[in-house]
């Protein structure tokens, strides 16, 4: 079954404590991307990757890091989380830049 | 960069009525315009998309229209059903920053039985 798997699905953490949200896909897609969803703001792109070792900034990259060492994995790293990073995060993949397949989402709360 | 505006933010209709959601975009080089539906607690799913060489596309009760000159595109849902209730997002990509997909703010559609 084609899947985009995110972990953790829910996380409550404190300001400054480094965390990583993992994303793994089994569809052999080259393109992967991270979005955050906030009420009234829709989905905003954080980072995207066109292929292994190729990453680029989206619209809201500040405070986030990513890496793409393997085709199937695209972790999102928050080195020093702050309360304004409290949000619902989605990982998505696609073949090229066509239909996106989204994960189930990771709800992050930073206290 | 690209900017996508979506209206209305909420839409309430009676079952059987039509629903229309409108989006405008800023980058005239954008050439791919998908629409996603997000049900409660889930990730968005593609429901229909259109490319800039096409003016209209239909899939059963759903249609999308594109006006490149005016830089706007719309989603039309006919004969709405309660299961159409969800959040709908438009998006645009393929412009000057290939790989970047910019979403609208979303529309909460409620279909009353």
- Could you give the order of the helices and strands of chain B? EEEEEEEEEEE
Mean pLDDT of chain A: 94
What is the structural class of chain B? mainly beta
What percentage of residues of chain A falls in helices of 4 or more residues? under 10%
| Strands of chain B, count | 11
Number of strands of chain A: 11
DSSP strand content of chain A: over 45%
Broad shape of chain A: globular
Mean residue pLDDT of chain B: 93
List key phrases describing it.
heterodimer, A: 111 residues, mainly beta, 7-stranded mixed beta sheet, 4-stranded antiparallel beta sheet, B: 113 residues, 5-stranded antiparallel beta sheet, globular
Set out the fold topology.
The complex is a heterodimer of chains A (111) and B (113).
Chain A (H helix, E strand, L loop, with lengths): L3 E4 L2 E4 L5 E7 L5 E8 L3 E10 L2 E4 L7 E2 L9 E3 L8 E8 L6 E2 L3 E5 L1
Chain B lengths: L3 E4 L2 E5 L4 E7 L6 E7 L6 E7 L4 E4 L2 E6 L4 E6 L8 E8 L7 E3 L3 E6 L1
What this model shows, in words?
The complex is a heterodimer of chains A (111) and B (113). Chain A is mainly β and 111 residues long. Chain A has strands spanning 4-7, 10-13, 19-25, 31-38, 42-51, 54-57, 65-66, 76-78, 87-94, 101-102, 106-110. Chain A is globular and about 35 Å long. The N and C termini of chain A lie far apart (36 Å). The mean pLDDT of chain A is 94. Chain B has 113 residues and is mostly beta strands. Chain B has no helices and eleven strands. In chain B, strands 2, 4, 5, 9, 10 and 11 form a six-stranded mixed sheet that branches. Chain B has a five-stranded antiparallel sheet with strand order 1-3-8-7-6, with no helix packed on it. In chain B, a hairpin with a 7-residue loop joins β9 (86-93) and β10 (101-103). Chain B is globular. The model of chain B has no long low-confidence stretch (mean pLDDT 93).
């Amino acid at each position: 079954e084609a899947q985009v798997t995110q972990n953790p699905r829910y996380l409550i953490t404190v300001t400054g404590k480094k965390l990583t949200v993992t994303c793994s896909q089994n569809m052999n897609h080259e393109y992967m991307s991270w979005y955050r969803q906030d009420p009234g703001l829709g989905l905003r792109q954080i980072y995207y990757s066109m292929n292994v070792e190729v990453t680029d900034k989206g619209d809201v990259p500040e405070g986030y890091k990513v890496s793409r060492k393997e085709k199937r994995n695209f972790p999102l790293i928050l080195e020093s989380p702050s309360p304004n990073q409290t949000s619902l995060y989605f990982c998505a993949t696609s073949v090229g830049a066509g239909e996106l397949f989204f994960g189930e989402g990771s709800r992050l709360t930073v206290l | 960069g690209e900017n996508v505006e979506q209206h209305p933010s909420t839409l309430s209709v009676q079952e059987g009525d039509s629903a229309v959601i409108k989006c405008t975009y800023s980058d005239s080089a954008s050439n791919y315009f998908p629409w996603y539906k997000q049900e409660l607690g889930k990730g968005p799913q593609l429901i229909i998309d259109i490319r800039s060489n096409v003016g209209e596309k239909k899939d059963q009760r759903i249609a999308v229209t594109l006006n490149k000159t005016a830089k706007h595109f719309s989603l039309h849902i006919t004969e709405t059903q309660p299961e159409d209730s969800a959040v709908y997002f438009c998006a645009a990509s393929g412009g000057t920053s290939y790989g970047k997909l910019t979403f609208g703010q979303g529309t909460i559609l409620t279909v009353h039985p």
